[in-house]
Amino acid sequence: MSGLIRNIWDAANQEVMLTEKDGLKGAEKSCLFVGGKSSGKTTVMLKFLSREDSAKPTTALEYTFARRATNLQHKLTGHIWELGGGTNLRKLVDIPLTLDTLQRMTVLLFLDLSEPNKLWFTAETLLRAMRERLDVVLKTGNKQNPGFQQLMNKAAWERIGGKDRNDANSINPFPVPLFIIGSKFDLYQDMDSDKKKVITKCMRFLAHSNGATAMYVSSKVDTTMRGFKHIMNVSVFDGQLNKSPIIDSARPLYIPCGMDSMDAIGKAPLASSDIGRITSKNPSETWKIAFCGHFPQDGDVKQADIPDPAKDAQFREPKIDELRAQKDKELEAYKRQESHKWTDRIA
Q: Three-state SS across 120-187?
């Protein structure tokens, strides 16, 4: 393909054409980065790609790719999508999560450990949005190929060792491989030990109940970056997941999918004021109450249901916003004028 690449869609199309030319059609894997605003997604991604660029706020949905040579003198291409805007632009997950990418897709959900007052809400909102989208895709696939949805569900259970486990009733495996990543581990280390225990127990529950791998990472801690590079090689280059868990309060958390259990995680760390008040038999609801009892959710909660990105603070442009406000006033005045005209005609 020659000429200028006008946008990310042209870039993505060019990469597909190149990989098909190399004889690797159908072999490309994709991964989707989602998470809260400023949760460190871009920074660790750039480190994985060995790029020296300074991390900038992600605008809407961005695309890039990674390449690695193979022993067959071919280059593997991994497609990387990153969703910006925290929970506000969650509908954009519809673009990378398609029937064409489903069987080669991995999701990385970043949750900022240093801001626990946004953590649960971010996880809950984004997981729900992605599950809703994947449900639509799976049903579409099942119409085209009866039994497809059942096969995907079987594969999801096989990733965590199958349904023959004592806590199977507490698990709803995510339809595609999922990594739940606690970011900014360096800041988390300085937190109160009791708070850290609550966060880690709840992170383990979130990961295990969704059939996900849990890990902690920081762009400033080399050992965690080595672990992150490992899961990226698994996500975009067919690497094999390290199945050795690390559950040690003095070290960054790493628990591969299927290697944890509800018994090992223990009971939900309910705040004293919530003990005896829980009536729900749904484990997810109990754990949500427990976490939010220690860390009431705020911030993005008020912003999550804003459907118009133009109202998102991260996209502010003073001059443009001023013109937009003026045009909005003119539009409202025009609507009122037309409404009066219509009322007069009826009268």
A: HHHHHHHHHHHHHHHHHHHHHHHHHCCCHHHHHHHHHHHHCCCCCCCCHHHCCCCCCCEEEEEECHHH
